[in-house]
Structure formats: structure tokens, C-alpha cells
């Protein structure tokens, strides 16, 4: 029977620790992976091949996704409620801002009220996303984390700057301009770059 060496177990443990925060979950995943890797190595696969396959079988989206799934499984009602609330607030923000800008352009009454409501809902949506970023940073890897964080910061600055502008409070222009710069220079290029990469991978796979 094939048994992993201490060096191989140490490597696997470091890999798991870099992706999983929960110590209890780390131990369970390590035990499961060791058994799976040893079984695959008995079939003639190398340690690297067996390790990659075992981790893929454990969760195709990666180790960090496991902790998210476990958390949502243990707290199913709260994330579902928060997700619905997030989509609802995002819809209300978009609708209110769109209608508010139309009313402002046509010089109709209640334009400012609609714009304020839209920006408040936009702030709530962005702060909710920021909470998820801070609580589960491993779920947003690489460019996705940078893109989401830049979008959140830009959204908050634009929303606050717009409200300040409506009430003629100081620093309104600075907040709005900084938010727009982050949105156009960081968020939008990252968004379209990741979209382009996804399309290229889909075309190559096809």
C-alpha cells in the first residue's frame, strides 16, 4: 500500500492552509485528500497528478469554494435572505437612479428625491458586497477580488458624492470624480479583460 511521505503531507497541508481558514475543516480535508491521493498513486499516478485530481474531485471550483459552501450550508437561511436583499436593493437603486435622471433631465418634480433614494440603495448594495469581500476574501481570487473591490469603492464614492452634490455639501465633486476615475480606470478594464479571457477559454474549449 502506498503511503505519503512526511514531505508530501507537509506540502499538502500548506496548500490546504493557504486556502482554508477553519482549522477543523483543514484537518478533515487533509485526511480526505491523503486517502484519495494514496488510492490514486496505487493506480500508478504520480503524487502531483494524484494531488491535482484529488483536489479537483473534492471541489472543481477549488479549495476556497469548499469553505464558502460549508458556511452557506450551515447558515442557509441568512445567505439566501441576504442574496435576495442584495438583488432587490440593486434593482431599486438602478430603477430609482434611472427614473431620477430622467425626471431631472425633463425638469419634473421629485427628481432629487428619486436620486437620493437611488444613491442610498446603491450605498447599501455596495456596503453589502464589501461585507462579503471582507468576510470571505478567499472566494474572490486574483483579479476578481481587485475588480470587485474597485467597483465597490467606486460605487460608494459615486453614491456619496452624488448625495453631497444634491445638498450642495463640500467635497462632493472630489468624491464623485475619484469614484468615476476608479470606475473607468480600474473596474471597467478589469471587467472587460476577465470577460475577454472567459470568452477565449470558452472558444478554445469548444
Brief sketch in words of this structure:
By secondary structure, the protein is mainly α. The chain has helices at residues 6-17, 23-42, 47-58, 63-74, 77-106, 111-135, 143-166, 172-205.
Determine the strand fraction and express it as a percent band. Answer: under 5%
Shape descriptor reads elongated
Number of strands: 0
- Please state the structural category: mainly alpha
C-alpha termini separation = 40 Å
C-alpha Rg (nearest Å): 23 Å
Quaternary organization: single chain
Low-confidence stretches: none
Tally of distinct domains = 2
The profile of the biggest β sheet is: none
Order of helices and strands: HHHHHHHH
Could you tell me the mean pLDDT? 84
Portion of residues in helices?
over 70%
Number of helices: 8
